[in-house]
Amino acid sequence: MIWVEVLSRQRDVAERFRIAGPEARIGRAYDNDVIVDDPYVAAHHLRIFRDESGQLVAEDDGSANGTFLDRGKDRLTRVNIDGTKPIRIGQTLLRVRESNHAVEPERLARPERGIAPIVGIAVLGLAIVGIDALKIWLTQTTDPRLSSYLSLLMIITAVLAWAGLWALLSRILSGHPRFVRNLLIALAGLLLISVYNEVAQIAAFAWTWPVANTYQYVVVWCVLAGICFLHLREVGQARLWLKGAIVATVLVTAIAAQALQQSEAFSDSGRQNITRLLMPPAFRAVSVRDENAFFREVTELKVKLDRDRSEALPAEVVR
Amino acid sequence: MIFMIMGCEARAAEAPGSAAEGIYAAAKPRLLQIRTLVADAGRQTSNGSAFLVSSDGLAMTNYHVVSQVVLEPNTYRLEYTDADGSHGEATLLGVDLPNDLAVVRIDKHAAPYFAFSKAATGGSGGLLKGERLYSMGNPLDLGFTIIEGTYNGLVERSYNERIHFSGALNAGMSGGPVVSADGTVVGINVATRRGGQLVSFLVPARFAAALLTRVGERQSTPDLRTEIRQQLTSWRTTLYRSLGEGGFRSSPLGSYRAPETAAPWFNCWANTNVGATPKPRASVNSTTCNSDSDLFIASDLNAGSIQIVHSYAKSIDLNQFQFATFLTQLSQPRLVGGGPFRKYYSPQRCSEDFVRTAQAPEHPALRVIWCAQAYREFEGLYDIAMIAVTQDHDSEALVSRLSLQAVGYDDAVALGRQFLEAVEVTK
Predict the structure, then answer these.
(1) Structure confidence at residue B17 (pLDDT)
(2) Which of A135, A208, A284, A298 to mutate to test the interface with B (most CBs of B within 10 A)?
(3) Among A71, B232, B394, B421, whose Cα sits 20 to 30 Å from the Cα of A1?
(4) How far apart are the C-alpha atoms of B167 and B151, rounded to whole Å?
(5) Chain centroid to CA B32
(6) Which residues pair with A95 in a beta bridge?
(7) Which residues does chain B have with pLDDT short of 50?
(8) With contact defined as beta carbons under 8 Å apart, do A305 and B351 qualify?
(9) Per-residue model confidence as pLDDT tens digits over A99-155
(10) What is the DSSP letter of B171?
(11) In chain B, which residues have their Cβ closer than 8 Å to the Cβ of A304?
C-alpha cells in the first residue's frame, strides 16, 4: 500500500490518497489515481511504482515542466523515494510514503498550566505600577492631582497591547498565541527599565555618578532588544541566530541614531540635556569632599574648556 | 534694562532766542552723523552721531556706533555726514570698549571743534545737580537736533561710571555731544533706560579726553580687534578684582547665612512666594542681586554681568523626596550667555560634588554644581554658573547661585571659594 500526500506551502498535509495497487499515476487528467489541480502539472505527470529490488520509484511521464526533489534545481526523470523529501511537480509538493513508514513516538502532553505564570504576571504588574505610582507621588511638588496617576492606565494599556500584538503574530505564524508568556516577557522588560531608571537616578546623586543616567537610553534600547528577541523566540524556535542578528542590528542602529541625535543637539545648544537631580540628603553615599579637592577638579575643567575653544575657534578669527 | 540709543524726539526750545538756539548755532558745523555701511552694498546698516574734537578732523563717537567695523573690518566701512549734507569716508583710530567710546578721523581741516568742559574733565564735582545740559545728535536719521535736559549726577550702583541725564535721548543720537551752557562738552550720549521716562546716560567727558590723548600720542593705528580683546581682559580683571576685594559677607536668610557682595554696584531685590495661588507646598524666599556692569561688545554680544541669587526654601507639606524634587527645579545650572551660543561660546562643561568648606558646624555640607563655558573669540574669558544647595536638612535648604560673565578662570575659582565659604547655618 502506498500513501500519496499533497502538501501545503507550510508543508502540512492538505490531501492524502490511499493507493491500494502496486502503481500510482499522478497528473491533472481524470484517469489518474491522484488528481492534482495545478495548471503547471501535466495531464499525466508522474508514475510511482516498485523497481526490481522493491524500492519505490517516481518516474516523470514526459511533462513539460519536469519533476524536482524538494527545493532542488535539477530536473529529474527518475526519483528514488525515501518518504521524507517531498517531490515537486509544477507548484505542488508531494510526499509518498509506504504503509510501514516509521512515525515519531507519541509526544507527551504538557502538564496543565499552573497558577505560577498568573502569579508572575500579577507580581510583575504590581511592581511596575507600584514603582511608577510611587515615583509620581514623590515628584509631585504642586497641588496633588489624581489625574497625574492616569499615566499608569496608559502604561497598563500599552503593555497589554504590546503583548497582544506579539500574541497575534505568534498565532498567525506558529498557531499558538502564547499570550501569557508574551505578557510575562513584556512585564519583565518594563520592570527592568523601571528599576534601572531608579538606580541610575540615585547613583547620579548618591555617588555623583551621572553617567548611568546620561546614557540611560543605551540600557533602555538593550532591554527593548532583549524583549523583542524573547518575543521572536516565542513566535518560533527556528533560525534563532537570524532573529538574534536582526534584533542586534536594529539595536545598534537605534543606539547609534540616538547618540548621533544627542551629540548634534549638544553641539547646537552647547548644553547637555540632563536634569541635575537632587535627593534627600540622607541618600548621599559618598563622603563630603573638602573645598580644595572640589576646586582642583573644577580647575581641571579649564583645560577641557580651552581645548573645546581651540577646536571650536572658527578659522577666520585666527588672525 | 539699558539699550543703546539711536534716535530722539526733539523737544523744541520753547521761546525764540533761547540758550539752546545759540548753542545749536555754534555747534552745527561741529556735528556729524556716522553711518556704518555694508562695504559691498554701499548702504547703511546703522547710524549714530559724532562730534569734532580737533581742528585736523578727529571726531568722537560711541564704540557701539562703530563696533561692526571694529569686529568685521572687511565687511563694513564708515561714512560721515555733516549738517551741511556733505559726506565722506571716516577712518577708525581708536576705541575705549569699557567706556563705549571711539575716535574716527574724517577729511576736514581747520574746522571748528568742541572743547571738553574743564569742570567735567577735572572730575564730576564741577557740575551741579539740576544744571541744564544740551544734547545733540541725529535721532532716527531725521536730522540734527538739540535737546534740553538736566544733569543728575552720576548713576548710582553702576560699575561703569555714567552721568544720569534727564532728557529724551533716542536711537541715532549715540555718540553725540552733551554740552553745558558755555558750549563745552561734559558727556557723550550713550544709552537710555528702556521702560524709563527721560532716563538717559552719558559717558563722562574725561574718558573721551583721555582716549583722545591716547590716540594722539600713538604713531600708528593698532589692530583694533586685538585692542578690544586687551581692553576687555583688563576691564574684567579690574571688575572681578574689585568684587573679590570687597569679598562676600554672610547675611541672614531663613536658618542660613548667605553670601552677599559688599560691592556697591549691585541692584538687589527680594522675592517671596507666600501669597502665591495655588498655595505653595514649600515656601521660597529669594534675594537676587544683579550687577550693573554689562558691557556692549557687539550688537549680539553683551558680557560682564554678575548675578547672585539665594533662595531659602522650606517645606510646608512636602515630604523629603518631594522637597528634593522641588529643590531640583530651583537648582538647575542655567548658564546665561550674553549672545548666541554657536557664535560666541564653547560647549558647557560641568562638575558636581558634595563639598564642605570647613569642618565647623556652621559650615553645612553642600551639593555644588559648577558649569562653565569659554568665549571662542576672547581667550581667557569664561562664563561661570555655580550652584550650592545645603545638605544639612531634608525639609529646608538654601540654594545659592553665583553667575559670573566674562570672568578669568582663576578669578572665578577664587570667587567661588569665597562664595562657598560664606554659606553658613545659623542654628
Answers:
(1) 65
(2) A298
(3) A71
(4) 9
(5) 25
(6) A5
(7) 1-3, 6-15
(8) no
(9) 888 888 988 877 777 888 899 999 999 999 999 999 999 999 888 888 989 999 999
(10) B
(11) 349
ipTM of the complex: 0.87
How large is the average pLDDT for residues A42-51?
92
pLDDT digits (tens, 9 = 90+) for B335-351: 877 888 888 999 999 99
B325 and A141 within 8 Å at the Cβ level: the answer is yes
- In chain A, whose CA is at the least distance from the CA of B388? A278
What is the DSSP secondary-structure string of B245-292? HH-EEEEEETTEEEEEE--SSEEEEEEE-TT-SSPPSEEEEEEEEEES
Give the residue on A whose Cα is nearest the Cα of B340: A269
Per-range mean pLDDT, top range of A22-26, A58-62, A188-192, B105-109 = A188-192
Summarize pLDDT for B70-80 with one digit per residue, the tens. Answer: 999 999 999 99
When scoring B346, B420, B425 by the number of chain A Cβ atoms within 10 A, the one with the most, hence best to mutate, is B346
Cell of B384: 561661570
Query: Is the Cβ–Cβ distance between B308 and B327 less than 8 Å?
Result: no
CB-CB under 8 Å, B389 with A308 = no
Structure confidence at residue A173 (pLDDT): 86
With an 8 Å Cβ cutoff, is A147 touching chain B? no
Q: Would you state the cell numbers that stand for residue A1, as one nine-digit string?
A: 500500500
* Of B416, B414, B412, nearest in space to B401 by CA: B416
Q: Environment class of residue B217 by beta-carbon count within 10 Å: exposed (0-12), middle (13-18) or buried (19+)?
A: exposed
- A88/A6 Cα distance (integer angstroms): 10
Cβ-contact B261, B419 below 8 angstroms: no
For residue A295, list chain B residues with Cβ-Cβ distance below 8 A: 413, 416-417
| pLDDT tens per residue across span A212-263 | 888 999 999 999 999 999 999 998 888 899 999 999 999 999 999 999 999 9
Residue A308 contacts B where some CB pair is shorter than 8 Å: yes
DSSP string, B359-385: SSTTS--EEEEEEEEEBSSSTT-EEEE
Q: What is the average pLDDT score of chain A?
A: 90
Closest CA to B323 of A148, A138, A131: A138
Q: Which of A291, A299, A305 sits opposite B346 (nearest CB)?
A: A305
Q: What is the dihedral of CA B380, B385, B391, B396, to 10 degrees?
A: 160
Minimal Cα distance from B276: which residue of A? A142
Query: Distance, in angstroms, between A289 CA and closest chain B CA?
Result: 5
Rounded to two decimals, what is the model's pTM?
0.83
CA dist., res. B314 & res. A142, Å (int): 14
The Cα of A216 is separated from the nearest Cα of chain B by a number of Å equal to: 19
In total, the C-beta contacts within 8 angstroms joining chain A to chain B are 148
Q: Which residue of A has its CA nearest to B343?
A: A314
Which A residues in the span 190-219 are in contact with B, Cβ-Cβ below 8 Å?
A: 208, 210
Q: How far is CA A95 from the centre of its chain?
A: 33
Q: Answer whether A313 touches B (CB < 8 Å).
A: yes
Question: How many CB atoms are closer than 10 A to CB A62?
Answer: 10
Q: In what order do the strands lie in the sheet with B282-291?
A: A289-290, B349-356, B366-374, B382-390, B396-407, B306-315, B282-291, B266-272
Residues of B in contact with A298 (CB under 8 A): 351, 370, 413, 416
